[in-house]
Specification:
16 helices; mainly alpha; 449 residues
Amino acid sequence: MIYYLSIVLLFALLAMFWMRYRWASVAHPAVWFAIAHVAQAASYWAAVAVGFRKVYNEQVLDRLGLCIAATGASFALASLATGTQRRETPGLRLGALPENMGLLSSYFSVISIVGAIVNVAFVGVDMAGIEARRQQWLQQIPTITARMFYPYMLAYVAAFVCGWEAVAYRAGGVKSRHWLWFTLPAVSGLLWTLGTGGRQAFGLVLLYYGVGGACGLAARYRAGLQIPRALIVRLGSVFLGTLVGLAIVVSATARIRADYFGTVDTTGVQSIPIARQFASFVFYMADGPAAYQIKAETEPDELGWGMHTFGVLEEVYLDRVLGWRMETSAEVRRDASLEAQRGALLVHSVPTVFYDFQRDFGFTGGLAVASLLALLSHLLFRQWYVDQKRSSLVSQVPLCMAIMFWAYSGNYSLLRHDTLKWMILSFVALDTVRCCLRGTAIRSKTLSP
């Protein structure tokens, strides 16, 4: 019952932030958190309705609802405590994107595509064996794939800039010849997915597009510029189209994986021509609450004290200082295989970020950490909202990471892996090139505002 009430509270949270920030609210991490968990709850209910999932432990499910409600309340209290910043007069600078940033991002997109193509050229494309390749990739990353990821990761910052530009600077519409440049990062992400068999890379590129567009829309509103109705209609159409495209990609890879593992559809949904294109995406979204009920039923024997939530600290060797003993990929797969042999359910499913909090700090401590992260995320948004005079892309990283962290909170902690590292590197790379070209006569004839 608490879980269902928490979703109702999320609608109230969305209404509150809309009333306080209007269109700027689209760049607030709380809004992304609320939308992510509302969508996940709807998917879970749909999966239960068709018999794909069930309520495994209602008491544990209510604990998840308590976590969601507490986090939403923390966002609301933080916003109420800091007040609402009034809109500035028209003419405020639209943040950290100078006029040649679009041209540079298009170059970065091309470099990223080249990296993805080189990877595909070496590893090949075999749709029938794409899941086998992914399993091999989980065991050991091919050398060429590891090396080509460096040029490929430039698609992240390129997608962010394209999303920003399309909304902040081109409210009147994007000309047909410009769409090619705006879609290049997505092409790179799709090629990388074909080469590795994993869909996370493509999903992250789309998320960067969304975060860039949200920040551009918020910056435009913050500057006192008009938000045309046609822009909102276009954004809604692009969002729905992107969601449909992502659902098709997820469903296609899910069917390939089902064939690989010999999984049998027990719901009958896959036999319906249209429904099968979206069923796997809905079922994938539903796994978070279902897996949480199973995996969070008991408290962990030993707390991780941050290594499951903030594993990114391993990149700067702080794991040694903190005394963490990070699990290797081989150990994670071994433990999952042992659980599967014992008949455990959903061993490969991700049980939301709140399970990571619980593994590290216990249930009560996890609630405290979630509340503190919500407060920090709001403060990052507040600082970004008040100060639109930043002169570098790197200054966008804190809010961008906060948005993506909560958008992904229905799966796992994005700070567990190296997402933040690649974000910083890609943003720094574009900033560095821009600084090197400062004073050079470079102007985009296609993408500059």
